[in-house]
Amino acid sequence: MLNGIISAVTEKLTEKGASPVYGAFDAVPADRKNSGIYTIVGVRSFESTTPIYSLTKIYLPFRAELDIKVTAPENYSAERLYEFFSDKIYPAAAELSGLESFLKGISLKFDSNISRLVLTAVISASGTTKIERSSLQ
User: Fold this and answer.
1) Do 96 and 47 form a contact (C-beta atoms < 8 A)?
2) CA distance 18 to 81
3) Would the pLDDT of 31 be above 80?
4) Can you give the pTM of this predicted structure?
């Protein structure tokens, strides 16, 4: 389920022009990723509630906090990074299909481990996953 959420967000960000976008669980080392701006999508927290059963489907309500990290070379200005976020990331996060989502917080810092400027947006999202009952057997 977590990979599905990450894939959906990654697709939407790519659609809005924020590529390249990587999932947090990919195996690509940071030094092999794009040398310009790139985005990493991860799940900070996840909680599912009691399933709802019908004759043919199981509905699983959930809440998640998504981490969207936009990284840029250290010589990038904070203004350019915020502009990229406003133009590409925020519109995509507002249009996540099937999810109620809102921007919970945003921060900007330099990450000395990868020598890059990192803008982190925390998106709170909730939705319901549908599972066909026949696929569970």
Assistant:
1) no
2) 12
3) no
4) 0.82
Contact 33, 20 (CB under 8 A): yes
H or E segment and range at residue 128: strand 116-132
C-alpha span between 71 and 43 (Å, rounded): 17
Considering only CA atoms, give the Rg of the chain: 17
56 three-class SS: coil
Q: For residue 10, what are the CA distances in angstroms to 23, 39, 93?
A: 7, 9, 10
9, 69 contact by CB (below 8 A)? no
pLDDT above 70 for 137: no
- Cα–Cα–Cα angle for 114, 112, 71, nearest 5°? 50
Please give the structure tokens belonging to residue 40: 């990493």
Burial class (CB in 10 A: 0-12, 13-18, 19+), 136: exposed
Which pLDDT score, from 0 to 100, does residue 135 have? 56
Tell me the C-alpha distance between 34 and 132, whole Å: 39
How many helices (DSSP H) and strands (DSSP E) are in the chain?
3, 6
